[in-house]
């Protein structure tokens, strides 16, 4: 009987226990839900990019109690009952706010990935107490504060941790107890202090990334005990001391990055034991001695970079045979010496694409056999050595070369003709040698060149006129040669040119007004030539110029008042000429000048007042005959009648020029009327003939070639479609890639749009306008053949999940568009208004240079009033100026309005037709409400994520970014004002954007 009673009691106890366990499990399951909701509440979200289904909106709609939390996006649960949260993956979901410490209560959580968001605040210490956590990914956020010690003292299951690309500060936790850890990635933060010794006791470590911090001390020799280590990346810190010899014990090591530190001593010979090493980066240190012979045993080496050290001695002649898989060999800025035989051995490295041995002490000649190097070679840099002989013709075989640097050597002879075959070359530096001969006109075939540096040689003859074909040229240095004749007019058509150095040659003639086309120019040095005549007032149009030197020539006449418009100039030298008259009063406006030299001319009259003329250290006026005033410069006071006399002389000169101008105009009008009659007759005859093929802009393309090029206009080649047609990608018979815009002639207005675009594109030439190659037109088919833009439209880049523009890229695009509009509005002989500026009409070439496209509704303005009335729909909603809808008046100010909206869109990542803009709230009003106190709240998250990471090493990084973004917004708001007359002109926008870009580059 007692046995039965005991059995019944046991059953009752077990039933109660089961009920308690079930109740506890149910409670745990419900707490998972509560903790997830707490996380959602803390990590407030933002709608980014204006996409129809932005990730943050998906979470807001999906994470509700209407459905089981195990079905929520990013949540994965266990298969047990009741299910528990084991994984939370919300990478790239536009989250912001903070990380809720309640996540630490998800006791079954094994994987947490919150990377690539905008989360801020600190990392909760409680995360380190998750007993099952194996992977913790918080990289690419805005997290700050120290790393919680608990994360490095998780004694159980943590395998991989990635906290990189945040703003974490303080030192690494000193207590490290991670028995299963394999990957520690904390690069690109603000960490200080030493590497904790305990990290070397984590014997399972395979990957350590601590680069781009502010860590100090030495590299622990105990790292040699990490026998499983495959990648050790400690670069861009402040480590000192020697490279520990124990590193040679890491026989599995494939990647060692110690660059950008303060390491001293020699490369330990034990590193020759690293037989699996593929990437070795030791650059930017203070390493001395020769490279140990044992290191050349690393036969799997792909990248060897030891530049900017104090290495000495020769390189082995068999280097290329020892390391046949080399892709990049960078040894610049050392004291390496000996011959160049090692370069010939690199012919064995069939994938070599980068060779950099500049600034060493190598000597010998470059044999023609160098043409046998890898056809993948893109960078061949051997400048700043003691190399003699001739430039080998075989270099012309390296058809994929992008950059060729042979400068500052002892090379002689002429440039071999084979070099002009390098059509992909972008940088060609041959300066500071002893090269002779003339510069071949074939240089004009190298249309990808961005930099030409031939200065400090003995070249003679003329600058070839074909140089004007290199439309992408940004720097031209032909200084200190024996070049003569006049500067070709084609040179002034290089609208993208930024630096022009022609000093110390024998150039003669005048400086033409066409110089004003150099809209991007920053530096011009023409000193010590034989140039003469008056200084053109067109120089005053160069709003971006910072350095201008015309000294030691034979210029005469007065200094143009327009030079006072060079608002960005810092160095201006007009000395040692024959300039006369008075110093322009407009020079008082040159607020950025740090050196103004007008000495040794024939200037007279009163020295103007103003800040420039008060600073004795920056003004040079000696050697002029009759200057007065400015007692601080020790010139005598001016006579009382000086101003009157000068005014009378000026009036006489003005009268002479007016009479001459009137006579010239009358003669011109007579000649012009005769020319117009002749031209109209010729045009009438020509128009009566029917052209069955494409119009001959640059080439003639039959319809059948266009059909072949586009695979009979196959939809697979469709780039886009618009209201009046489609655009196809095509490859012409000669391999040229083009965009073929085929019009749907059934759409009303299509033919007229075709005629407008043909007429407009046919008469414009600018690097930031899409170029027409040809047209094809008959009664049943009309198409424009345009240059192909491989990076498609700005719209695609702004609203793609897979692509992201940096702040500098956005500024460059804005500057490109402004230059294109400035040309249409102010530089073209006839004012042209685009009328439909928007991101989809801005195309990007392979170098991300912006080109304005789609001129189908462009307007040709009358020069007198620069306006017209349109009866058509002009522009696109959101970008269209208010006056278009109310008055129909089309002016250049309408384009300025569209440009202003575009600037605001680039900063915010919001389309002007975004769903959030309803009622009276527009994109402009939204930005205006936030400016200037809440700018960072409206900025595109992609900008914040990338730029704050780039600036994290600076304490004033946020302030720098804020100033830049505020400057862009200010221009955008000014351009998009409601009243047209209150908007800026594009000629005033360009220098403002150039100044913003310069500020970004400096910082």
UniProtKB/TrEMBL annotation:
<dbReference type="Pfam" id="PF00560">
    <property type="entry name" value="LRR_1"/>
</dbReference>
<dbReference type="InterPro" id="IPR011009">
    <property type="entry name" value="Kinase-like_dom_sf"/>
</dbReference>
<keyword id="KW-1003">Cell membrane</keyword>
<dbReference type="Pfam" id="PF00069">
    <property type="entry name" value="Pkinase"/>
</dbReference>
<dbReference type="InterPro" id="IPR001611">
    <property type="entry name" value="Leu-rich_rpt"/>
</dbReference>
<feature type="signal peptide">
    <location>
        <begin position="1"/>
        <end position="24"/>
    </location>
</feature>
<keyword id="KW-0675">Receptor</keyword>
<dbReference type="InterPro" id="IPR013210">
    <property type="entry name" value="LRR_N_plant-typ"/>
</dbReference>
<dbReference type="Pfam" id="PF08263">
    <property type="entry name" value="LRRNT_2"/>
</dbReference>
<feature type="transmembrane region" description="Helical">
    <location>
        <begin position="657"/>
        <end position="679"/>
    </location>
</feature>
<dbReference type="InterPro" id="IPR000719">
    <property type="entry name" value="Prot_kinase_dom"/>
</dbReference>
<keyword id="KW-1133">Transmembrane helix</keyword>
<keyword id="KW-0732">Signal</keyword>
<comment type="similarity">
    <text>Belongs to the protein kinase superfamily. Ser/Thr protein kinase family.</text>
</comment>
<keyword id="KW-0472">Membrane</keyword>
<dbReference type="InterPro" id="IPR003591">
    <property type="entry name" value="Leu-rich_rpt_typical-subtyp"/>
</dbReference>
<dbReference type="GO" id="GO:0005524">
    <property type="term" value="F:ATP binding"/>
</dbReference>
<dbReference type="GO" id="GO:0005886">
    <property type="term" value="C:plasma membrane"/>
</dbReference>
<dbReference type="InterPro" id="IPR008271">
    <property type="entry name" value="Ser/Thr_kinase_AS"/>
</dbReference>
<dbReference type="Pfam" id="PF13855">
    <property type="entry name" value="LRR_8"/>
</dbReference>
<keyword id="KW-0597">Phosphoprotein</keyword>
<feature type="domain" description="Protein kinase">
    <location>
        <begin position="713"/>
        <end position="993"/>
    </location>
</feature>
<protein>
    <recommendedName>
        <fullName>non-specific serine/threonine protein kinase</fullName>
        <ecNumber>2.7.11.1</ecNumber>
    </recommendedName>
</protein>
<keyword id="KW-0812">Transmembrane</keyword>
<keyword id="KW-0808">Transferase</keyword>
<dbReference type="InterPro" id="IPR051809">
    <property type="entry name" value="Plant_receptor-like_S/T_kinase"/>
</dbReference>
<dbReference type="GO" id="GO:0004674">
    <property type="term" value="F:protein serine/threonine kinase activity"/>
</dbReference>
<keyword id="KW-0067">ATP-binding</keyword>
<keyword id="KW-0677">Repeat</keyword>
<keyword id="KW-0547">Nucleotide-binding</keyword>
<dbReference type="InterPro" id="IPR032675">
    <property type="entry name" value="LRR_dom_sf"/>
</dbReference>
<keyword id="KW-0418">Kinase</keyword>
<keyword id="KW-0723">Serine/threonine-protein kinase</keyword>
<keyword id="KW-0433">Leucine-rich repeat</keyword>
<keyword id="KW-0325">Glycoprotein</keyword>
């Amino acid at each position: 009987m007692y046995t039965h009673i005991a059995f019944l009691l046991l059953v009752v106890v077990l039933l109660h226990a089961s009920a308690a366990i079930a109740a506890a499990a149910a409670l745990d399951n419900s707490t998972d839900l509560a903790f997830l909701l707490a996380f959602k509440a803390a990590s407030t979200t933002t709608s980014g990019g204006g996409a129809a289904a932005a990730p943050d909106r998906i979470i807001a709609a999906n994470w509700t109690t209407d459905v089981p939390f195990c079905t929520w996006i990013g949540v994965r649960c266990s298969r047990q009952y009741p299910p528990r949260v084991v994984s939370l993956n919300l990478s790239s979901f536009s989250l912001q706010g903070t990380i809720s410490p309640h996540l630490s209560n998800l006791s079954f959580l094994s994987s947490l990935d919150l990377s690539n968001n905008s989360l801020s605040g600190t990392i909760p210490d409680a995360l380190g107490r998750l007993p099952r956590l194996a992977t913790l990914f918080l990289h690419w956020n805005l997290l700050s504060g120290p790393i919680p010690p608990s994360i490095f003292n998780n004694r159980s299951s943590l395998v991989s941790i990635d906290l990189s690309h945040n703003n974490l500060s303080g030192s690494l936790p000193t207590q490290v107890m991670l028995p299963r850890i394999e990957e520690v990635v904390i690069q690109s933060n603000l960490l200080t202090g030493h590497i904790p010794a305990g990290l070397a006791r984590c014997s399972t470590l395979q990957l350590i990334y601590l680069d781009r911090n502010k860590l100090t001390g030495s590299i622990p020799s105990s790292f040699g005990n990490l026998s499983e280590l495959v990648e050790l990346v400690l670069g861009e810190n402040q480590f000192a001391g020697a490279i520990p010899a124990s590193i040679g014990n890491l026989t599995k090591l494939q990647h060692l990055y110690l660059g950008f530190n303060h390491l001293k001593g020699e490369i330990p010979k034990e590193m020759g034991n690293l037989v699996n090493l593929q990437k070795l980066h030791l650059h930017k240190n203070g390493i001395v001695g020769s490279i140990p012979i044992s290191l050349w045993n690393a036969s799997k080496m792909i990248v060897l970079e030891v530049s900017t050290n104090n290495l000495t001695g020769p390189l082995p002649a068999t280097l290329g045979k020892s390391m046949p898989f080399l892709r990049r060999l960078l040894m610049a800025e050392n004291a390496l010496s000996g011959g160049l035989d090692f370069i010939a051995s690199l012919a064995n490295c069939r994938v070599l694409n980068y060779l950099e041995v500049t600034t060493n002490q190598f000597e010998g000649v470059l044999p023609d056999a160098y043409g046998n190097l890898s056809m993948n070679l893109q960078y061949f840099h051997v400048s700043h050595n003691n190399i003699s002989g001739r430039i080998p013709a075989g270099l012309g075989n390296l058809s994929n070369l992008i950059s060729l640097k042979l400068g500052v050597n002892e090379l002689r002879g002429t440039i071999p003709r084979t070099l002009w075959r390098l059509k992909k070359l972008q940088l060609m530096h041959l300066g500071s040698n002893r090269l002779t001969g003339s510069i071949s006109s074939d240089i004009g075939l190298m249309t990808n060149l961005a930099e030409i540096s031939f200065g400090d040689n003995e070249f003679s003859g003329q600058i070839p006129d074909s140089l004007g074909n290199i439309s992408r040229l940004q720097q031209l240095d032909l200084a200190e040669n024996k070049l003569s004749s006049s500067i070709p007019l084609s040179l002034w058509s290089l609208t993208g040119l930024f630096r022009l150095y022609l000093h110390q040659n024998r150039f003669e003639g005048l400086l033409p007004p066409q110089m004003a086309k150099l809209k991007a120019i920053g530096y011009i040095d023409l000193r010590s030539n034989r140039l003469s005549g008056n200084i053109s007032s067109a120089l005053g149009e160069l709003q971006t110029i910072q350095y201008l030197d015309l000294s030691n020539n034979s210029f005469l006449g007065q200094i143009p008042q327009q030079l006072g418009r060079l608002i960005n100039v810092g160095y201006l030298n007009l000395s040692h000429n024959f300039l006369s008259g008075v110093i322009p009063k407009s020079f008082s406006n040159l607020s950025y000048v740090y050196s103004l030299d007008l000495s040794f001319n024939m200037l007279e009259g009163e020295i103007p007042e103003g800040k420039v003329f008060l600073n004795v250290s920056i003004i040079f006026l000696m050697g002029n005959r009759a200057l007065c005033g400015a007692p601080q410069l020790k010139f005598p006071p001016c006579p009382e009648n000086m101003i009157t006399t000068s005014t009378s002389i000026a009036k006489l000169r003005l009268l002479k020029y007016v009479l001459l101008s009137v006579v010239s105009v009358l003669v011109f009008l007579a000649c012009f009327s005769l020319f117009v009659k002749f031209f109209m007759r010729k045009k009438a005859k020509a128009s009566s003939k029917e052209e069955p093929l494409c119009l001959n802009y640059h080439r003639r393309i039959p319809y059948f070639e266009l059909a072949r090029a586009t695979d009979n206009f196959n939809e697979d080649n469709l780039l886009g479609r618009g209201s009046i047609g489609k655009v196809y990608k095509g490859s012409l018979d000669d391999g040229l890639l083009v965009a073929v815009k085929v019009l749907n002639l059934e759409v009303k207005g299509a033919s007229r749009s075709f005629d407008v675009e043909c007429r407009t594109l046919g008469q414009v030439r600018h690097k930031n306008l899409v170029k027409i190659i040809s047209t094809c037109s008959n009664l049943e088919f009309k198409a424009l053949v345009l240059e192909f833009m491989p990076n498609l439209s700005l719209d695609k880049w702004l609203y793609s999940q897979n692509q992201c523009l940096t702040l500098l890229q956005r500024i460059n695009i804005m500057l490109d568009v402004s230059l294109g509009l400035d040309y249409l509005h102010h530089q073209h002989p006839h004012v042209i208004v685009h009328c439909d500026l928007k991101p989809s009409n801005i195309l990007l070439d392979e170098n991300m240079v912006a080109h304005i496209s789609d001129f189908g509704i462009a307007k040709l303005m009358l020069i007198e009033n620069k306006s017209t009335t349109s009866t058509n729909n002009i522009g696109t909603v959101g970008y269209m100026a208010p006056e278009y809808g109310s008055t129909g008046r089309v002016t250049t100010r309408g384009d300025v309005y569209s440009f202003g909206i575009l600037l605001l869109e680039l900063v915010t990542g919001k389309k002007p037709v975004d769903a959030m803009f309803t009622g009276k709230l527009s994109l402009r009003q939204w930005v205006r409400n936030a400016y200037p106190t809440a700018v960072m709240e409206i900025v595109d998250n992609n900008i914040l994520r990338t730029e704050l990471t780039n600036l994290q090493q600076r304490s004033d990084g946020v302030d720098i970014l804020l100033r830049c973004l505020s400057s862009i917004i200010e221009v955008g708001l000014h351009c998009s004002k409601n009243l047209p007359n209150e908007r800026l002109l594009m000629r005033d926008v360009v220098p403002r954007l150039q100044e913003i870009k310069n500020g970004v580059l400096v910082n």
